[in-house]
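Notebook p. 47: complex prediction with magnesium ion.
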Amino acid sequence: MSLVELHAIHKSFGALQVLKGIDLKIDEGQVIALIGKSGSGKSTLLRTINGLETIDDGTIMVAGKKVGDHDTDLLQLRLNVGMVFQQFNLFPHYTALENVMLSPQVVKKQSKGEARKIAEEMLAKVGLSDKMMHYPDQLSGGQQQRVAIARALAMKPRVLLCDEVTSALDPELVNEVLAVVRQLAEEGMTLVMVTHEMRFAREVCDSLVFMHQGRIHESGNPEHVFASPKTPELASFVGGLAG
Amino acid sequence: MAYQFDFGAILPHWKLLLDGVVLTTELAAIGAVAGVGLGILGAWARTARTPVISQLVGVYVELIRNTPFLVQLFFIFFGLPALGIKLSEFQAAALAMVVNLGAYSTEIVRAGIQAIPAGQIEAAQSLAMNRVQIFRYIIIRPALKKIWPALSSQVVIVMLGSSVCSQIAAEELTFAANYIQGMNFRAFEVYFVTTGLYLVMSILLRQILKVFGNFLFERRNHA
Ligand SMILES: Nc1ncnc2c1ncn2[C@@H]1O[C@H](COP(=O)(O)OP(=O)(O)OP(=O)(O)O)[C@@H](O)[C@H]1O
Ligand SMILES: [Mg+2]
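Predicted complex, C-alpha cells below:
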C-alpha cells in the first residue's frame, strides 16, 4: 500500500473545474516532480493533499486512513503531510529557531528542551545554525525558505509537499534551496514537488507527473518522459521550456 | 468690569478633584482592559465559521457605533432596571465604557487580523495547528501590533468620554468639576484646571499604552 493514495479527486472553484479526476499514488521514499503549465492545477492538487482545499469528490488516503473533512481528520493528515510554500510564510514575530520550535511545542506538546533540540538539528541540516536567533526580515529569501523547510521537517512528516519553493527567489539563491531538497531526497524523504527546474527534476526525482487541464496527462520515469514524451502536449511543454 | 481670576478658589476643593481623577482613572482602566479584551473576543468571533455568531457580533458593533454614548449610558443606568438589572452609578459607567470600547475595538482588531497574510495562516494549518492555536500564536500578536496606534487612540477617546458619566452622577472628574463650580461659581478656573487634568491624563495614558505596546511587541531574542 502506498503512503498517499489519491483516487478520482475532483475540485472546482465555482464553475471552473480545476481537478477533473486525479489518481495518484505516492510511495514511501518516492520523489515526485509535478510539472505542467500555469493554471493546470498543480498547486490545487498539492493543497488538497494537505487539506488546504476541500475536495468535491474522490478520496484521499494517507498511511492507510481515509481523510474525512472533520477538523481532527485534517490535523491528523497534516501530522503526516508537511508543506513548504513558494512565499516561505515564516511567522514574522518569531526568530528562525522559534518558527521551527513552535509547532512541535504547541501541537505535539513537546517540552521546550525537546523542541529546541529538534529545531537546532533541523536548522543545522539546512545550514542555518548561525542564523537561529534571526527574525525572518533579517534573512535572505533563500535563508527564509530553508527555515521554512526546517520548520516543516521538525514535525517529522512522512511526506513533504513543495510548491515552487524556489520561484520567489533571486536566481543566485535558488541553488542553496535546491541543495537542501536534493539532500532530503537522498536521505529517503518522500517528496512531491511542483517545480519549473526541469534539470533538477530530472536529476533528483524518480517520477515525473505532467498535469494538463486538470488531469494527469502523462507520467513516468523522468529520463523516459523527457526523452520521448508520448503526448503532443508534453512534447510541446518540454519543447517550450528548451526553446 | 473685568473678570477677576481667582484660582485660589479651587484649592479648598482639591480633594474632590483628586477623587474625580481617581475615579476617572479607574473607569478608564476597567474600560481599557475589559473593552480591549472584549474587542479581541469579538474580532475572533467575527472570524467564526458559524455565520450566526459572526452576525450577532456584527449587530452589536453596528448598534454601538451608530448610537450616542450618552444614550447607551442612560439605557444601562435608567433602562436596565426595568429588566431587574440595577447597577450603581459606577457599575453602569464602567459597563457602558466596556461595551462601547468593545464594539470599536472589535472593528479595529478585526482590521489587524485581516491584514495578516493568508499564507501565514495556511503555513500554520499545514503545521497541524488548530484554530485556537493559530489565533493565539500566529494571528493575535502581529494583528495587535499593526493596529496598536489606532487602538490606543480609541482607548484615550473612551477615557475622555467617561466625562459623560457625570450625567448619571458617577463621581468622576467632570462630575467633581461641575460640583465645585456649583459651589464657588468659578467656572473659568474650575474648567481650566479640569481641562489641564484631562490633558495630563491623556498624555500619560498614551505614554503608558506606548510603553506597554513596546513591551508586548518587542523582539526579545536579539540576533
Ligand atoms: N481559490 C481559488 N479561487 C478561484 N480560482 C482558483 C483558486 N485557486 C486556484 N484557482 C484557479 O484554478 C486554476 C488552477 O490553479 P493552480 O494554482 O492550481 O495552478 P498551477 O498549476 O499551480 O499554476 P501555476 O504554475 O501558475 O502556479 C487556475 O485557473 C486558478 O486561477
Ligand atoms: Mg501553482
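Notes: Chain B is about 75% helix and 0% strand. The interface with chain A takes residues 117, 119-120, 122-131, 133, 137-138, 141-142, 145, 217, 219, 221-223 of chain B (CB under 8 Å).
Next step: compare against the earlier run before touching the bench.
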